[in-house]
Structure formats: structure tokens, C-alpha cells
């Protein structure tokens, strides 16, 4: 039986690791998508009405069971569809991930001073007369059919949601209960449906072991991301990462609250060894505090540079592969100013992270470009205490301040995660609680002879 994998419910597991030095601190860990099991990724390139969407499909299982159905706002021609490179999405994830940096206290006694390929169309003759009659009776029109890399693509239009659901079920797609109402709302908006299945012959010939991302370019007044179909398949909340690339500035949601994650906090040093647990717990707590309706900003930055860098900025070729189509526009008046690196591209990246379900996200994500180019990143800091044996008045002052600083770090971690502050203190050597010594009974030495 075919399995419906929607844009919002694809699973993703990435493994990207390496430490990188950044400015005066050291990047030591990042909260990439690998921390979350039920997570999907979407890259949106947007300028004016023009959009290029890259949909990541980390389907696990027999590829013959893969199918994807996504609402699209307009008719899609074959030249508007492409198969992307997963490594570029991985690079974008690494570049924008919230990160942990570490610093080391110095000695207090020391002095300071045309990117989309043409695809081969599937012959219309493949559609048998009986199948055509059945499709027409249900009010379903196959507007186009293409083979794109390892995918067979159909662009469907329909007059009624029940007919479309029936046709999809009869053609091997398992559609979740409750889909008819949502499909109907998309049809009322004049949307079509982008349907993709794996072409087994093309997949076997390609030599790839994993399905590659699908990319679609289109023009539409609406800047939105359909997520409601994905909630029907989900047994619990899902995580979605939305990366937007624009030349105007930060992107946020207009129909849900966009929340900036806490950032810049100094945390106890032991968080370095458990950063994944910290970030998952902190994010869950932030989601609850937003009544499970928040869309969280994790990163917003000019692609030209970063501080600190979890990965190098994307190259021009990588940006173009994602569909950034304005890089050769020499007349562009909004290019970054001269203080940025020579290789800077006029691309502003926003990373949004949403944990959603049908109850709390009954609407699709409606997006808007704000024009705000202020930089933001989820960034957390650990500071190692000076461990040398210097002696001076400044050292005594430093030790007193260190105890107060570590207590503040423990309180901060407890507030962000809800973890027990006493357990946190016990992981900090200078704050660890110890059992008070048992005093010697007063009478023990009462009649001992004096010397």
C-alpha cells in the first residue's frame, strides 16, 4: 500500500559534526535537526511573487511505497521542477543551527590589555481509457505528468474534494481520515495538487541510496506553507524547520506569534556535555510557555558572515542550487554594504522552528517578509574558570565573583529548563552541596588529661 508522505510530516535524521573556532570563543556544539526525531525541513527562496521551495524527504522503507501530495498555488510546468542536493540543505542546517560556545577565563593577576533541468514528460498514452473515464467521473484532471530524476510527478486539479480523495485512494495513496475537509479548503482557494511517486527504474539507474529533495519554482501572491495535511497523519506533535532566503530581510509568520528564543545566556560548564538534552528541554519549555502556538526564530543573519560560525556561509553555487535567482542582478540597490566580506551575497537567511499539531495549528503558515535585517542567533555560552595558582588581590576578588557567577548560571539553567537547581549546583564543583561535618560530642574530651 502506498504511504502518503506530506510536506509537513517527512522524517529527517542528519549527522553533521565538527568543532570550529570562531573569533575569541570556540564553537563546541549545535542544535541541528538531528536532535529531533520527528522533524521535516523546507527551504523557501522568495522575492516578490517568485518562490522556489525545496522539500526534504527522508523517507524510510521500501521506496516503492513512497508518495507525496502537496498543495501548490498554481499550475506547474515541467521546467519548474527540479531534483536538489541534500548536502546543500545539510550545510544550510549546520550554518543556521543554534550553537554553544565556550570561553576560558584568563589569569586575573595578569595584565589585560537557469538552474532547473528540462525533464522528460511521461506520454499521455500511459493513461488508459478506462482510468481516464473513471478520473473524469470523479472530477479529477491530470493537468500534467512528468518524470523528474527518480520521481514521477502529476499535477492534479479537481472540482470536489471527495472525488480527489477517492481517486487518490483508488490509485494506491493512503489518505488519512479527515483529509476531505482540508483538501476542500485548498480547492476553494484554487490550488492544485503536486503528487510525486518514485520511478523505480530511474531510481535504480541513478545509483542513489536515498531520495533527493524535490524543488518547485512558481509565482504566487501568497507567501505560505501548507502544513494541515501533515497533521492528519501525525500521532503527536511534529517539528518543522523552515529556512527562508530573501533579499529584503527576516521572515516571520503573520497568523501565528513569532517568538525569539532566549539567547546569549551563560550556562554551567557541564552543559557542554549535555547540550542536546538542554536544548530539547529548553525548546519544549518555550513551546509550552507559548501555549503550543508559537513559531520560534532560531536564526536570522546576512549570509555573508556569522559570529560564531557553526559552518561556513553557503557558496554562490549552493545558493543558486536552492533557487536564489537574483545573484547576478548587478542593478540591485539593496546589496549589503562594504563592511561585509567581498564574497557576500545579497541573501538574508531566516530559520524558523515550529512544533505543531492539528489542535494548536488549525491554519497553514502564512509568511511575511519584514524588511528587518537585524541579526539574531540562538547562542549559548559556557565559561571555564581560571585554574592556575596565581596569587594577588585580584585573585581573591575573582574567586568571590566566580562563586556568584556560577550560582547565576545554575539559576539560569534551572529557569530555562525547569531542572532542579540543587541538582545543577551539585554538578558545579564550587557550588556542590556537601554534608556538614558531624561535630565531636562535647564530653568526649572532658576528662582527657591535658599536656
Features:
451 residues; alpha+beta; nine-stranded mixed sheet; seven-stranded mixed sheet; 28% strand; disordered N terminus
Task: Describe the structure in your own words.
The protein is of the alpha+beta class and 451 residues long. The protein contains ten helices and 24 strands. Strands 4, 5, 7, 14, 16, 18, 20, 21 and 23 form a nine-stranded mixed β-sheet that branches. Strands 9-10-11-13-6-1-12 form a seven-stranded mixed β-sheet. It has a five-stranded mixed β-sheet with strand order 2-3-8-24-19. The N terminus is likely disordered.
Please render the helix and strand layout as text.
Blueprint: E1 2-4, E2 20-22, E3 25-30, E4 39-47, E5 50-55, E6 66-72, E7 81-83, H1 86-96, E8 99-104, E9 120-121, H2 129-137, E10 140-148, E11 151-158, H3 161-170, E12 173-174, H4 179-188, E13 192-198, H5 200-206, E14 214-219, E15 224-225, H6 228-233, E16 238-246, E17 251-253, E18 258-260, E19 266-267, H7 275-289, E20 295-302, H8 316-321, E21 348-356, E22 365-369, E23 376-377, E24 379-384, H9 393-417, H10 421-425
Helix pairs in contact: 3-4
